């Protein structure tokens, strides 16, 4: 058996082993005499108030994915609609962050003076949790949708900015000197010499940023409510539907993996053409 087949087969074995153990140890519904006071308060003998087995989650996945874009009102939308709202917010905030971070990263990487002037601000703002900006954003912007996008902007900007500045600053100086001997302008040097050389590092920052943005949007949507996969998780928890909660957690993981895979493929293409 080739090594290319061994890893997927081992992954499947581990997956089925974990699912089998989970299914086997999931207790059946207790009667009232066997329940603790907390369990009785949380819904008595209701199966939805208990951690569900994988078979119940699989059935829920089939149900949800068979019609992912239904819309029965504000609190009853399909998982496809909820994911679409979240991806829209992530990509909007991410796009605006790239528009700011990449040019600013070039400026910092190419100018020691700009680096010294801006570094104190970066070091103060970068460690602040993106969600700490949410109350201020809601107060100033007065719109939950725009506030969520702003939070994504804040969390996305730092990895792109820092990686861009690092990549630009570490471009080989002799390449830059050659561009200067040909009397290229700073803008043309940045576009034709520095950008191709720094592209792998810039893409690494962009890949990190998209992962952080997807993490943050779930928490942000739990705070602002309305729509989105984060709101879906919180709403299903309020309904004590743990099957839907676990299903939505898996959806979050799959979408995050797909976003990361897209950037990984872009990185491979860029590395191949270097």
According to CATH, the fold-level topology is: MetI-like fold
The shape is globular
Mean pLDDT: 84
The biggest sheet amounts to:
none
Helix content: over 70%
Number of domains: 1
Which CATH C-level class is it?
Answer: Mainly Alpha
Q: Name the poorly predicted regions.
A: 29-35, 43-48
Topology:
Blueprint: H1 3-25, H2 37-41, H3 54-66, H4 79-110, H5 112-125, H6 134-141, H7 144-169, H8 173-181, H9 186-224, H10 229-238, H11 242-272
Helix pairs in contact: 3-11, 4-5, 4-7, 4-9, 4-10, 6-7, 7-9, 9-10, 9-11, 10-11
Write out key terms for the chains shown:
MetI-like fold, 274 residues
Provide an overview of this structure.
This protein is an all-alpha fold and 274 residues long. It has a single domain (79-272), classed as MetI-like fold (Orthogonal Bundle), CATH 1.10.3720. Helix content is 77%, strand content 0%. The protein contains eleven helices and no strands. The protein has helices at residues 3-25, 37-41, 54-66, 79-110, 112-125, 134-141, 144-169, 173-181, 186-224, 229-238, 242-272. It is globular and about 75 Å long. Residues 29-35 and 43-48 have low confidence and may be disordered.
